[in-house]
Amino acid sequence: MRKQYSCQVPVEIMRANNLSPLLKRNPMSIPTVVAFHYTLKDKDGTTIDSSVGGDPLFVMLGKGHIVKGLDDVLPGMNVGDKDTIIVAPDNGYGPVNTELRLKVGKAQFPPETNLKEGDQFQGSPEPGSPVFTVMKIEGDDVFIDGNHPLAGVELHFDIEVMVKRPAEPEELAHGHAHGPEGHKH
Predict the structure, then answer these.
(1) Based on CB atoms within 10 Å of each CB, which residue in 73, 130, 136, 142 is the most buried?
(2) What pLDDT, in 10s, does the model give residues 99-115?
(3) Residue 163: beta bridge partners?
């Protein structure tokens, strides 16, 4: 099971006149926060995910919090813009890496584990290690896949930009965007 981590950055609220010297010299270097609604579909038009009917997704651009294909296009969009953005696998979740598709023995799992198809686990506690999904079980063989479920998939995002603004000092300190109610960590 994947561990969830809360923000460990000490919160030090920086006032606008107390930003780092770099940001004082070049206000254009302050990252942009964008909030947008999206509907994600595959190339056949099957909806994979959507924020419509809920809260928009808030992201700080250029921080790797969304797929590169979106991160590259959103800076050129403005509040109210709607567009369909098609993201190739190389700019999405990457191509399928066949080396991350493995067959392992059930004996490699703790004996109390009741494995089922769809179960997910992290290969090691190291940050950035892949999350594996149990794809199928045949006898004592367990077939696992460490690729992102959308690896190799052409992504079609229907986007509507709701908010576009400079990052707030607290967001800069945390390294990520906060929604309208602030941070929830």
Answers:
(1) 142
(2) 999 999 999 988 888 89
(3) 35
